[in-house]
Batch of 3 targets.
Target 1
Amino acid sequence: MNKTTTVNRGTSMAKTRGLVQLAIFSAIIVVLAYTPFIGYIPLGFTRATIIHIPVIIGSLMLGPKKGAVLGGVFGLTSFINNTINPTVTSFVFTPFYNLGEYSGGIGSVIICFLPRILIGVVPFYVYHLIRKMSKKDGVSSAGLVAAGLAGALTNTLLVMNLIFFFFRDAYASANGVAASAVYKFILGIIGINGVPEAIVAAVITLILGKTLMRKGVQERLGV
């Protein structure tokens, strides 16, 4: 077997392994998304979620490109969920749902996908920035906590602020809030929903990351 054949086979195996890793994380996201009251937890005015957590872990283990793909899978599950199982505010996540005179549009697609894709990108860079600043070899606990917080808050802050940008009046009407007070309402959701989500993401990312990010474990997993 010549050197070129060996290199090509190694490249092919690496691509196959990468696809398998993506498939495993994607399967976890889909299972969470379609298990009632686990992946998406209905709160009436919105849905709480823990689906960002495998996207964050995937970002840290597989890198930002694959993390972005996983974020896209998360966005797709949200798009489908809000289309076939809508709440009163689902029009902000899908153009295929109307609430009276209010309907979604291109802004719905942006809200549904862009923040979720960035969940798979931001934690990777936050983790490595914290690790570099701490000048610590091995797994950085502070980096894992920061990555978990950053991933969850990327989702919450972007989603809620994009809702305000694209659908301020419609969102206010759907929630029975005066248009002049809608941003205060949004800040309330961020505090009640987004902050606990971020704390949970930080804790779980720390617990899982301390094990999964170890060099020996990553080598056995082929990362």
Target 2
Amino acid sequence: MEQETTSQINKDVTEPKETLVEVTGLSKKFCKDLKTSLWYGVQDLVSGYSGNKEKRELRPKEFWAVKDISFTLKRGECLGLIGHNGAGKSTLLKILNGLINPDEGKVVMRGRVSALIELGAGFNPILSGRENIYNNGAILGFTRKEIDSKVEEIIDFAEIREFIDMPVQNYSSGMKVRLGFAVAAQMEPDVLIIDEVLAVGDLGFVLKCFKKIDTILPNTAIVFVSHSMPMVSRICNQIILLEKGVVKFQGQNVSSGIDLYYNKFSTNENSQIVFSDNSIELKKAWVDGVVPSNNIYHILWGNTIDLKFKIQNKNLSKIPYISLAIYDKEQRGIAEVLPENQDLKTIENQDEITFTFQLKNIYLSKGIYNITFTASEDFGFNVYYKTHKAISIQIEHDKQIWTPFLMDSKTIDVRWC
């Protein structure tokens, strides 16, 4: 009997998880001109009625919003869908959610599907939050009794109890996000689709959402769309990078997909001058001893680097105070650099000055960062010149993490008590 029980347990453990989403050869085209689009629609109706099933190529003014996309998603898996604006992410999600039909390919969705595609989507604005909970639950296929058992948990999770009987049209964007996510997550659907809406919520609620996602993920398949790569790396175990409707990367190596996403920011454009009073001019900025690739300096994690800035003085009488700030690709401020021992001595017009600042042991996590250069009379006072992206660096490491710093550490002792 014991052997049979063990065999049954092993069978349960090794049994493959259920496939909930199957996408095969999915393509969708749109027309850039409304009048032409309507005419093509009439032609398609006529040809479809006459039994013309031949595969059509693009016609004038048409383009592929998504082209030949295939993937499967099992219970317990989270697919990160990334790409820049216009990559086709929203179109793909609308097809998955049944809002639009594909021109080619097919989608198979199994179980209950819940989607947070647009802020407030699925809510009736004139109904209260409570009434919308019941409406959304019914759409997902839950009975009145099942919704009754979850409604209090939904209200508590959304943190809007005092406003729950107020019309949704009077809710703030944050309240709509909290209610929408609470309904979608607490109902524990088989497939959950999330499109960028968490970017609207406050930090405390976002962390609460991630904790909930961790809880429901083993029994759910999630499609997660975001421009925040830390969020993607936090919860996704596979990734698709889209560019103009075409898959550029697909696989379980989330880190590699994120690297390719960041590389799309590479540009040969000059730094954008945010402010200048014509007192000085930044002539050149570089990392000493490192050859850039597409104007990005690749730095190994933990290395020490020398940053050099050459300025041309035009009418200052003394050396300006230099400060630096580091921003990530989401344009979040990561760190300030305030070099010590700056000698603000007297200078003459037309002098060229080269500043060298050393950054020791860079423990920024993997990714691309931009360094902002600011020259002023003193720290935070009377800015002469400021430019974003004076220097762009890419920190290289074998681990992709979602926090901004990866500190140097080692294990010195492990004990069992």
Target 3
Amino acid sequence: MRIVANLIAFQLGWFACVLGGAHGLPWLGVAFAAVIVGSHLWLAARPLVEAQLLFAVAGIGSLWDGLLVGMGLLEYPSGMLVAWLPPVWMMALWLLFATTLNVALRWLRGRWSLAAMLGAVGGPLAFYTGAQLGGVTFADPPLALAVIGLGWLLLTPLFVWIAMRLDGQTVAERAPVTAARSAGARHHV
């Protein structure tokens, strides 16, 4: 049930961000994403660890998208705060995507080729759909989508790897107490 809820929340957030950005209401999607991200962290077994994952992915993803904007491959209609970063609603989308890594996309762990293929197809597909909704325009659509695909081919396995190390959805395993440590503890009591 948590996986289905995670996927639905991500999709609703995606539409809120893209449609808000497309219609000059970039903060609408950001507010919607904040509720979803806040709920995700509230439900996390280790919220601080999960927050590290979300912000690491959002930071890397935002720098990547900023590079695409800087190269002139992408142009966004609203929400740009600085020229070298994507709009605020796109940064919120990166946070939303990161919420799926330890829940709905957990099955990609150790499946690096599959993660790369999913990224190479899913990334450009999401951008193409976003363009159809008015959230982004491409200077040269085939080139932009190819570069986006290459980036997602590399980024998706990286994000899955980071998620394995920053898994705030799983309770941390405690180190086993050795017999010597436990015996020493009894002598000090």
